[in-house]
Specification:
This protein is mainly α. The chain is built from five helices and no strands. α4 runs antiparallel to α5. The two termini are 15 Å apart.
């Protein structure tokens, strides 16, 4: 069951990541074609691309932690006995969960400040720029929980 939860969560994150990067690519391509072919620019292209990339990072951080593909130095875990290695990796997962929860708690007041401020080129509030911090925290905590559950079930 833990493997299925990991698989479905990873698949959902993959779809979100693919959709976001394709959207950014399409916007950039449209911007280049319009600018150099018709001497016209999409005014909102940069702002929307930045927002989409922030969302991409929010989903990508959770995906990297879930699949254990984040940057890490494995010198210590690789030389420890299996039980000590498991304890260390579970500690790291616990730190990821704590970081995620902290990100949610710390980001909520920031998002509240920006929810009524309008963006310059898009008819939307800055909420869209800062809410990914909360989403990233929730997803990182969830990824850390699923990863630790999988470590325990695999042990």
């Amino acid at each position: 069951m833990i493997r299925d939860c990991n698989k479905w969560f990873a698949r959902g994150l993959d779809w979100c990541l693919a959709s976001l990067i394709l959207s950014v690519t399409a916007i950039a391509l449209a911007q280049v074609v319009l600018r150099y072919t018709f001497s016209a620019a999409i005014l909102w292209a940069e702002e929307v691309s930045v927002i989409l990339m922030v969302w991409f990072v929010a989903f990508g951080a959770a995906r990297a932690w879930l699949s254990d593909e984040h940057i890490s130095v494995n010198l210590l875990p690789d030389v420890l006995p299996s039980k000590a290695r498991l304890a260390l990796l579970l500690t790291f997962d616990g730190l990821a969960i704590a970081a995620g929860v902290s990100l949610v708690v710390i980001s909520r007041p920031l998002v509240a400040v920006y929810e009524s401020i309008m963006l310059d080129t898009v008819d939307a509030t800055a909420w869209w720029k800062y809410t990914p911090l909360i989403v990233a925290g929730i997803l990182l905590a969830l990824a850390g929980s699923l990863r630790s559950a999988r470590r325990i079930s695999d042990a």
